[in-house]
Amino acid sequence: MTVLDVAWAERWMHAAAADVRDARDELTELDRRIGDGDHGVNMDRGLSAVVERLDDPAQAPRETVGQVLRLAATTMMSTVGGAAGPLYGTALLRASKVTDRADLPSSGVVALVEAALEGIVARGRATVGEKTMVDAWQPAAEAAEQAEDAEDGIDVLRAAAAAAASGAEATIPLVATKGRASYLAERSAGTQDPGARSTAIILAAAVAAAEGRGA
């Protein structure tokens, strides 16, 4: 059985930082089409800062998954510009409150994903179909809940990540009705939402970290 513990959470943040850096130009281009054009740069900066703090020997050792997520949350809030910093920061902060334990069972992974979604909805006031990162997080949470009976938490992660990827793809034909992209109205259709895309990348990194792949 895969152990989703503090070491996994730290690998997840490292993998997410590396994968977002690889996708920085893609995310920037998506955001250039329907937003401010800075999503890739901002997410790269924020996650790189998270890794720097995790690797800082002066930091106290993390004893729970929640402590790792809390560190990531506060770092993202203080280093990421635009809407992404508050949204991801709130998502991770909410998730940290339900994962304050040394390792996560399947139900703990479900709680993590659901809490992250709740944080994003509370902060951004968005719903499914408005062409935002909620369109990736909502199906991820639903898929995680459906997989909760799996014996291994990694199966819940895989279900959530796959659903997030499909949800992100499904934003391409949508017309944005929330955020800066909504100013483009019909012209926003045809471009994948950058926040939904970064969500898919970050959840895929969680799977890679659990499988021993990634950074």
From TrEMBL:
InterPro entries for the chain: DhaK_L_YcgS, DhaL_dom, DhaL_dom_sf, Dihydroxyacetone_Kinase
Keywords tagged on the record: Kinase, Transferase
Originating species: Isoptericola halotolerans
Highest taxon of source: Bacteria
Record-linked SMART domains: Dak2
Domain named DhaL: residues: 7-208
UniProt xrefs under Pfam families: Dak2
GO MF annotation list: kinase activity
Descriptive protein name: Dihydroxyacetone kinase DhaL subunit
